[in-house]
Amino acid sequence: MARAKISLIGGGQIGGVLAQLCALRELGDVVLFDIVENMPQGKMLDIAEVARVDQFDVNLKGTNSYADIAGSDIVIVTAGLPRKPGMSRDDLLGVNAKIMKQVSEGIKQYAPESFVIIISNPLDAMVTLCQKITGFPPERVMGQAGVLDSNRFCSFIAWELGVSVRDVNAMVLGGHGDTMVPIVRYANVNGIPVMEQLVRKYGEAKAKEVMTAMVERTKMAGGEVVKLLGNGSAFYSPASSAIAMAEAILRDQKRVLPTCALLKGEFGVDNYYVGVPCILGAGGIEGIMEFELDAEEQALFDNSVAAVKGLIDELPSILP
Ligand code: A3D
Question: Of the residues 78, 176, 187, 210, which is catalytic?
């Protein structure tokens, strides 16, 4: 049986880690595309030359030609600028929208049957643009943000409670910006409510403070890494998160992962891309798992959607 083919558009920090993870997990043959000459070829040669040590059998190719992505099953896009300290993701809109236009045209022409996972920021606007330009069905065009944001929230909870992060379940919904919405009410450790554990540990008032601090840290977690790195943004964590999504599709796992998906009335949103729990399998986004938000959560979610709408409204002036 033919191996799957995964193309990575953007061979920078995240692109390189994506390529290595695809190889280590033998997800399929990998093409790494970038506009910088020789760099993607160099990165792929570097990874390929350790195949014996890491024991993988996949073909790796670096390229500057879109023709090489032909026949891709999945395309993961990281092309675009990352933010610098002090910048918000939204500050990247103007420059990255132009890059996303080129990239989407390349994917449309050379990989018309592919599933596309966008990582470039500002995430929700970039996914919207890619779906519009490719014209692919929405279940084939999605964004990675929620897997990472949710994992960050889970990590903070695990560290606070001193438990394995593998037993923590918590989700972050909404747009991938400062308005994202960590859902506190359903955060649990193997089904045990996190809030109840915090109240037992600290009492009611302090428990709320501790949870609020974790929620705020989650919302600002990308910026925390940007500040520490001094140059560029998180790259290991978004790469692993996108690989979880790609693997769910390639192996038809039916995983329920927070995904930036086009909503058609779910959660009260019509025709906008934002992060919600989705079932990912061989059909891409096979379903959206809608659930009842309480009034406060809905207000926070609506606020986050409004921020995404604000960015989408700016797109026509950037790409007339
Ligand atoms: P970086 O290391 O700069 O890599 C980006 C690559 O894109 C570079 O190698 C560029 O040469 C390449 N590029 C630029 N223009 C084009 C083009 N027209 N066609 C093809 N390639 C091009 O950045 P990075 O890998 O650290 O980050 C990539 C993107 O991901 C940025 O927009 C980040 O803001 C974003 N990001 C998203 C998350 C999410 O969780 C959503 C997390 C972290 C970073």
Answer: 176
